[in-house]
Write a structure and sequence with these properties.
Bound molecules: S-adenosylmethionine
Strand content of chain B: 25-35%
CATH topology of the largest domain in chain A: Helix Hairpins
Shape of chain A: extended
Number of domains of chain A: 2
Number of helices of chain B: 6
CATH architecture of the largest domain in chain A: Orthogonal Bundle
Helix content of chain B: 25-40%
Oligomer: heterodimer
Distance between the termini of chain A: 70 Å
CATH class of the largest domain in chain A: Mainly Alpha
Structural class of chain A: mainly alpha
Structural class of chain B: alpha/beta
CATH superfamily of the largest domain in chain B: Vaccinia Virus protein VP39
Chain lengths: ~240, ~220
């Protein structure tokens, strides 16, 4: 290189940038990775369970039809409780033909268990990093909010009206573009308070929830004291 | 046959029915983002993929002069993982230099790997809104400011950086994404607003829409008075 100055700039900037990247790794980013992984595991489970049902249904279609829940379906096959009815339209398959089907069911069970383990890790991390938000939103919903905001810092900078709609970006965009109905909530729809309530109260509850989650997340970000139980109790008294 | 294009240090060749751009590879044998490498007469060239780089798109759309030359010092704002910046690094060559800046750690991680191989390009994890915070980490004056940050206030960021770092009669390129300024307004309205804003400080010498490579994007090539 012609200019000595550039060599200096090159070295210093490269070094400093590496240092800053190292420092940018925070617990909230690890949480986002866990929830991304859980989402992918769920997708994998669905893909494999569909394969299993297609395959298995050559042998025992009535049973696959009867047991809709994937986890239970897999469990019953593995424990040999998948009895065929007398007039089944399924073919008689040899032991050898059934073996790879059974193996697939075993692997799906493994993925289910692995996902559950990851959820336990998630819950631990959430309780440590965002105890207040976790008390109000639950660990999965709390993590999903982080996932959509990108980081805890970004989450606490959002107005609570935006927090209420995180995860409903597509519906919101449709609403702005073409005047379809404005969504009332995104990832909050899985919250027990909303799931239990009447439809007409959903908007109101989602707003109150988002308010409290915003407060809780800010306390978490600034490492304040634990007020999560008071926050959720207030909500339960109003809407529970 | 690979031959010189009308743009300094940029080459072109016919591939099937398409005309593609290339730059001379500063780091032999290394492809940065999956682009193809070509050899001719002992020289290695990297394909400059036009739908991954707004600068390549602008050139293919007929931009007559980007202003970027061999040996130039470039401040590149919004370098991401270094796709376009690596071609700029090819263009300025081993005696030029590229300060490649981005504020997102995730993409700068990949940028670091690119810079480690290219001794004429340094990464900076900085916010282009705060030139004060990196003014001591780059040259006092640069020949070129290139900006592609997809931010609401991108015109303002652009002017601030040109004001602080661009030399007199230096070139400044702005890749403008209409939708990041305002999702619902018409692109042509936004282009007009930005044109008015930057022409108060800079002379606009070329303005080019990037369709079909990028929708609702425009490249402004400007010169400092
Ligand atoms: C469209 S991408 C750039 C692509 C790149 N120029 C290329 O062609 O290879 C925009 C980048 O700008 C960065 N960015 C946005 N705002 C910024 C700011 N204020 N300071 C620095 N970088 C910013 C983003 O992190 C993102 O990586």
């Amino acid at each position: 290189m012609a200019d000595k100055k550039f060599i200096d700039f090159y070295k210093k900037n490269l070094e400093e940038t590496k240092r800053k990247i190292k420092a940018s790794v925070t617990d909230d980013l690890l949480i986002v990775q866990i929830i991304n992984n859980i989402d992918d595991l769920n997708k994998i489970i669905n893909i494999l369970a569909k394969d299993l049902r297609e395959w298995y249904s050559y042998y025992n279609p009535e049973f696959s039809k009867e047991i809709q829940d994937h986890a239970r379906f897999v469990e019953l096959i593995l424990s040999g409780k998948d009895k065929k009815i007398k007039q089944s339209m399924g073919a008689e398959l040899s032991k050898e033909d059934l073996k790879p089907i059974f193996n697939l069911a075993k692997k799906i069970k493994d993925v289910f268990e692995f996902r559950d383990e990851q959820e336990i890790c998630l819950e631990k991390m959430m309780k440590k990093v965002m105890p207040n938000a976790t008390a109000v939103a639950g660990s999965v919903i709390g993590a999903r909010l982080l996932q959509h905001a990108g980081s805890l810092k970004r989450l606490i900078m959002l107005p609570s009206s935006t927090v209420q709609l995180l995860g409903a970006e597509k519906a919101l965009f449709r609403h702005i573009k073409s005047g379809s109905k404005c969504p009332k909530y995104g990832v909050l729809h899985e919250h027990p308070l909303i799931m239990k309530a009447n439809r007409k109260d959903h908007g109101k509850i989602a707003r109150a929830l988002a308010d409290k989650i915003s407060i809780a997340a800010r306390v978490d970000y600034f490492k304040g004291k634990f007020i999560g139980d008071e926050l959720i109790k207030g909500l339960e008294e109003r809407f529970g | 046959m690979i031959k010189k294009s009308k743009i300094f240090e940029v080459y072109e060749t016919q591939l099937g029915r398409r005309n593609i751009l290339l730059t001379k590879n500063l780091v032999k044998g290394v492809s940065v983002y999956g682009e193809r490498l070509f050899n001719q007469d002992g020289e290695e060239y990297r394909e400059w993929v036009s739908n991954k780089s707004k600068l390549a798109a602008a050139i293919l759309k007929g931009c007559p002069n980007t202003g970027i030359r061999k040996d130039d010092v470039v401040l590149y704002l919004g370098a991401a993982s270094g796709t376009t910046a690596s071609h700029v690094s090819d263009i300025v060559g081993e005696n030029g230099f590229v300060f490649a800046l981005d504020f997102a750690p995730r993409v700068v991680r990949d940028l670091v790997f690119v810079c480690e191989k290219r001794k004429n390009m340094a990464p900076l994890l900085e916010d282009a809104n705060n030139p004060e915070s990196y003014k001591d980490k780059i040259s006092k004056e640069v020949d070129i400011v290139y900006q592609d940050v997809a931010q609401k206030n991108q015109a303002q960021i652009f002017l601030k950086n040109c004001d602080m770092f661009l030399k007199k009669e230096g070139y400044a390129l702005l890749a403008l994404k209409a939708r990041s300024v305002d999702v619902s307004a018409k692109p042509s309205v936004i282009f007009k607003k930005v044109r008015e804003e930057i022409s108060k400080k800079l002379i606009i010498i070329d303005e080019r829409k990037l369709e079909p490579f990028e929708m609702d994007h425009c490249m402004f090539v400007c010169k400092k008075k």
